[in-house]
Design brief:
By secondary structure, the protein is mainly β. It has one helix and 16 strands. A hairpin with a 5-residue loop joins strand 6 (78-81) and strand 7.
Length: 228
């Protein structure tokens, strides 16, 4: 099973080399497109934009010092997206594997999962087992979590310290506020507006970036809506 840690490690190790290489496999550019001008949430009014498309099943993203982004794609590609939305695929990327899991506590898979099989919709494993760490929160239905970001800074001041979780099958972005190990607020921010959410990140300037997982994947951005 692929892990976020493995994908991010690959990106970080390659960043310096790729910044110096300048080798490309093709490029695509587009202007940011506003999809929803004013999206109401419990604490903030948001604007949703698509800033790049044409990604091939994107997996994860990291930010470069100058504001550009590196996005890994499932076939083993690495795409650089500049601040105008232009995509440049970088050559010389080592072969990557989407198999294996490493490090951390034992979270139970597949002995414990609290999830259902995709084909049969039957439960997979038990709810809990000795020696395995229980989750802090259970998502309703087939949320299929993928991507989690802690909100910091003043851009979304009412969300500081909260978590934004993306969902694949559910196509949802959910906000969770914790007190200790207890979830005290739960809000559905997006549901179906962009499709399968693979990764969630907060940018250096405070905006929230979302990767859509699809054969024609895309990069989206959430910012505070402009005052009317």
């Amino acid at each position: 099973m692929p892990t976020m840690r493995r994908r991010l490690t690959m990106l970080r190790r390659l960043t310096i080399t790729l910044l110096l290489s300048g080798l490309t496999l093709g490029a695509q550019a587009q202007a940011a497109e506003t999809l929803i001008e004013r999206l109401e949430s419990d604490h903030h009014t948001l604007r949703l934009e698509r800033i790049a498309s044409g990604l091939e099943h994107p997996w994860s993203l990291v930010f470069l010092p100058g504001g550009d982004l590196l996005v890994s794609e499932r076939p083993g590609h690495l795409a650089r997206i500049d601040q105008t939305g232009q995509i440049t695929r970088l050559d010389g990327v080592p072969e990557v594997s989407t198999r294996g899991q490493d490090g951390g506590d034992n979270y139970g898979w597949p002995v414990v999962s609290r999830g259902n099989d995709y084909a049969t919709n039957q439960p997979i494993g038990r709810d809990s087992a000795p020696g395995m760490r229980d989750p802090l929160h259970d998502f309703d239905g087939r949320f299929a979590p993928s991507g989690l970001a802690e909100v910091t800074g003043d851009t979304f001041s009412a969300w500081q310290g909260h978590f934004l979780a993306g969902g694949l099958a559910s196509e949802r972005l959910v906000r969770l506020a914790l007190e200790g190990d207890d979830v005290v607020e739960h809000e559905m921010v997006l549901e179906g507006e962009i499709g399968r959410i693979r990764d969630v990140r907060q940018g250096p300037a405070g905006a929230i970036y979302l990767l859509k997982d699809a054969a024609d994947g895309a990069l989206y951005r959430l910012t505070p809506a402009l005052q009317p």
